[in-house]
Amino acid sequence: MARRRQAAWVVWGVLPALVVGAQDLTVTAKVDKTTVAVGEPISFTLTLSGDVSGVSLPPLRFPEHVAVAGRSQATNFSLRSGAMERSVSVLYVLVPQRAGTLQLGPFHVTHQDRALQTEPIEITVKKPALPPRLKQPAERFTL
Question: What percentage of the chain reaches a pLDDT higher than 70?
């Protein structure tokens, strides 16, 4: 019984050291595709990795002709080689409303007096495919 208590204190004593020794913060942004048609959804993911303590995500601004159809957030923790790794990912489903080229980002995050930003992502939005036109009027038929 005493050994179990000692082991518990050892484990609880090590965990705070792992949190303090966490790696620096990195910020990345990615999309699932860079060429879409008007109305076709794009999955945009912003990921913060490393020392995410005390970081709050600023509200993200997207171009006005892009609708946000959905948002979700995931937090991951893992221990690798005695070091704790943490990440927070925010997924947005974006739907472009008009054809052209649009730019997502750069997105900015400030952490411990350090400014970080993502690279901008360029998306090509094509006009939607039109349905084929009939060359001759269709004949009427009955069943």
Answer: 75
